[in-house]
Amino acid sequence: MSVFIGYQHVDLPQALRIRKYLRRAGIEVGMDVMDFDSLTTLHVTETLTAHIRDCTHVILMISHCSARRWWIPFCIGEATSWDRRLCLYRLGDQALPEYLAHWPTLTRPQQLDFLIEAYHREAAMRLPTGQRETPRPVQARDIHRGLRERIGRGF
């Protein structure tokens, strides 16, 4: 199990802080430094698809620079099609597009603890079978619903 952090290059410092926080919790984290403005769309989509395919969880960093960029709904679509656990990490207090309200949205580092707890709880539920692990049937939408509720309650 691993987490992929999707971010715009200007949000790198915040993405690095989140990666460090998750790694301290024993979570493998992948990131790819991409400048969405200088790379071809094909390169970006292929790279994002590969990262999302190879992870179990996706965190999309949403800032004033990225909130309305094309790659956000692309990543959401990819994460959904691969049944990945997805949450947004909003940087700043800008209003987000309405369609993003469906996804759990973190706004403070302390809320990462909710994701960490869900991650470890799900990891503990996996059953080893030889060299591969077979996950019990926990669907991403159930994880999303639980995270939204925890974030809403604040504990």
TrEMBL record:
<dbReference type="InterPro" id="IPR000157">
    <property type="entry name" value="TIR_dom"/>
</dbReference>
<protein>
    <submittedName>
        <fullName>Toll/interleukin-1 receptor domain-containing protein</fullName>
    </submittedName>
</protein>
<dbReference type="Pfam" id="PF13676">
    <property type="entry name" value="TIR_2"/>
</dbReference>
<feature type="domain" description="TIR">
    <location>
        <begin position="3"/>
        <end position="80"/>
    </location>
</feature>
<keyword id="KW-0675">Receptor</keyword>
<dbReference type="InterPro" id="IPR035897">
    <property type="entry name" value="Toll_tir_struct_dom_sf"/>
</dbReference>
